[in-house]
Design goal:
The chain is α/β, with parallel strands linked by helices. The protein has helices at residues 18-24, 29-40, 46-55, 62-70, 78-87, 100-110, 140-152, 169-172, 185-188; strands at residues 3-8, 90-99, 114-123, 126-132, 159-163, 177-181, 193-195. The chain has a seven-stranded mixed beta sheet with strand order 4-3-2-1-5-6-7, sandwiched between helices.
Length: 208
């Protein structure tokens, strides 16, 4: 029987928010982090908040983006958890409302089967402040999960989802095992399992 595990990236597979690390390069971390916090709590529309935060990154060199993204701190237990799930027969993927500059290198290191994220647009090696992709809307993760389930012939009863913020709610709607990991209150209310410890290996308790 095929099984599917979907992880959020920022503050789930990775310990922090990619866009906050990038904003720090421009001295704008506090400003961006404040918007991120409200978006993850469900107080701001995710699409509008992403557009606003990406705009603040205008002028950042693409080489700096890639360097920062290649050195992001992974959540404790991330690699062991991915390996353990794959050993249990899971296809393991990442959905991120953030950026593929970060999910691609992390996904390769962790051994993910696929990663889905947005793209920061650059011209002449410098970010323009524009962003695009299939993970920009608040319901994007749910829509992508449905497509993957159909593609892999996996039902909601064989689907595990793990996230921390309001934009993970849409994928929680299509999985029977829903883990809120060090999450905002809005996501905890929709979860079947709640993990408060910063160790992804705790997620394995939901499938054992």
């Amino acid at each position: 029987m095929r099984k599917l595990a979907v992880f959020d990236f920022d503050s789930t597979l990775m310990d922090g928010e990619t866009i906050d690390f990038l904003a720090a390069e421009l001295g704008l971390q506090a400003q961006v982090a404040a918007i991120t916090e409200r978006a993850m709590a469900g107080e701001l529309d995710f699409f509008k908040s992403l557009i606003a935060r990406a705009a603040l990154l205008e002028g950042l060199e693409e080489t700096k983006v890639d360097t920062v993204c290649a050195n992001l701190p992974l959540m404790p237990g991330a690699k062991e958890t991915v390996e353990a799930l794959k050993a249990r027969g899971y296809t393991v993927v990442c959905f991120s409302g953030g950026f593929r500059n970060a999910t691609k290198p992390a996904g390769e290191y962790l051994g993910l089967d696929a990663d889905f994220a947005n793209f920061l647009y650059a011209e002449n090696g410098v970010l323009t402040g524009q962003v695009g992709g299939e993970m920009m809307q608040g319901d994007a993760k749910g829509e992508m999960l449905l497509r993957l389930q159909k593609l892999l012939s996996v039902g909601r009863e064989e689907t595990l989802v793990v996230g921390d913020g309001a934009n993970d709610l849409s994928m929680f709607a299509y999985a029977d095992t829903r883990v809120a990991f060090c999450a905002k209150e809005v996501l905890k209310k929709a979860a079947t399992h709640i993990v408060e410890k910063k160790d992804l290996r705790e997620v394995l308790l939901a499938v054992d």
